[in-house]
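Researcher: Re-running this chain for the archive, since the previous output was lost when a drive failed. Same request as before.
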Amino acid sequence: MTAKGFAPIKNPAGWRGWVHYVKIPSDKEGFMILAPLILALAAQCDLKGLSKKDRELLSKTPEEIASVVDIQDDPFQPALKLQFGPFTSKDAFSSYAIIRSFVSRKNKSIDYQIYVRAIYDGEHRDYSTAAYMDGDNPISLRVNKLDTSVLSCGAYRRCTISEDLTFEIPERVLKVSADQAKVCSEDGWQFRLYDRFGDYQSITITGTIVAAAILRTNYAKTLITDK
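Model: Regenerated structure tokens:
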């Protein structure tokens, strides 16, 4: 499965709101009860090097994250679509990754796709290969290139460049990280992108996001009625 008709993301705010991942009652009394709990949990994730919104995200359980992810149900499309992320881990500079999932209307099959926006300074790296571990087996595959953009250029014509790309990933690989997910932890599923120079960039998607993706996607599967 390829890009499934998605255009390159121009705004990384893939979530329906970064601040509150828990559904909060609209009445003031309910908000006053839950708000201290949210702030207390966020305070527990005082991980250095991360933004406030990422620390807040890390404070949420997979169930809380999954509960606010929209299921895109377009009757003119062959599959339900979901998107999880982004999270910018400390090992990825300004790059980020998103998990996309697709649930077929025809046979309820599920496919997972990793969308990456790789951001870096210097020469065009031309990322072409993704690699990850499937158990003890290293897997390498070609990526689907979507877009390359020059974001800015500074002194001596040194530019900041972004590359948008995707690749497919089996659920069994993601499930290993999902089963080990911990709140307030950056640990999760890691992969590498290799460029034309043979260098690589490592990106980690936290276990709670991976677990949320599997939870919500399998729930979406139950919404498809047999015909």
